[in-house]
């Protein structure tokens, strides 16, 4: 029943993302509308894939470092990938297939790049760093469909070793886990997922923090069900958040990172207080 319920939530989130928007599209015309086919549907699918990637990466990182506050954005993975996106924008790299490669570069040159950019480039860079899906396209969806499956499979395959790591590194070793190998694989997979997500959406915080905790309330701490549940839950959350970002102040649009921050900051504060108290 839990999986069925989660599936219903995902379907409802995607349906709302397709139906709602500044431009009214009658329900009878959804299947033939150019607005739906070219704008809303790829954006809804991209939001789902980005949210799922960030959430499963967050779940893996939390298990890896045994810290409930771990999140791709809080550990610097999103920021480093965001720097690569700023670099690509400043150098006029428009190909979506090249952005994940650019997102892998990290260096302390962001200030110089921004200061040397013209007004349009500066605006694009800051919008990217706030996070948003306004540039969603079928090319972006295809990009994530190519880049995401392998690291997702790597994380799913690490489910049992991550369960063992919850006991501590030494007990995990005694129980047969190759701790160093697991660390490398999980961190690399989380980094690749985060870089691909940031390449197409900018830096979107707190999805990788909030969703794994919500899924643990329903599925417990075993990672075999938790990781796929986090992917589905993260996709649903970001699809809903992006819908709110599109319609809240229509015809203008909020960066979706603001919406996820409004959800994530209170949760982060509660987790921080609980963690420090314990």
Secondary-structure map:
Layout: H1 2-19, H2 34-65, H3 77-90, H4 99-102, H5 110-116, H6 119-130, H7 138-147, H8 149-157, H9 159-165, H10 169-174, H11 179-201, H12 207-219, H13 223-247, H14 256-277
Helix pairs in contact: 1-2, 1-13, 2-7, 2-11, 2-12, 2-13, 3-6, 3-11, 7-11, 8-11, 12-13, 13-14
Question: Can you describe this structure?
Answer:
With 278 residues, the chain is mostly helical. It has a single domain, classed as ABC transporter involved in vitamin B12 uptake, BtuC (Orthogonal Bundle), CATH 1.10.3470.10. The protein is built from 14 helices and no strands. The longest helix is centred in the N-terminal third of the chain and has 32 residues, at 34-65. The protein is elongated, with a radius of gyration of 19 Å.
Helical stretch tally: 14
Helix/strand structural class: mainly alpha
Low-confidence stretches: 96-115
Largest sheet: none
Domain count? 1
Rough shape? elongated
- Proportion of residues in helical segments: over 70%
Question: Roughly what fraction of the amino acids lie in strands?
Answer: under 5%
**What's the mean pLDDT score?**
80
Say how many strands there are: 0
CATH superfamily: ABC transporter involved in vitamin B12 uptake, BtuC
CATH domain class name: Mainly Alpha
Oligomer: single chain
Q: What would CATH call the architecture?
A: Orthogonal Bundle
- Tell me the CATH topology: ABC transporter involved in vitamin B12 uptake, BtuC
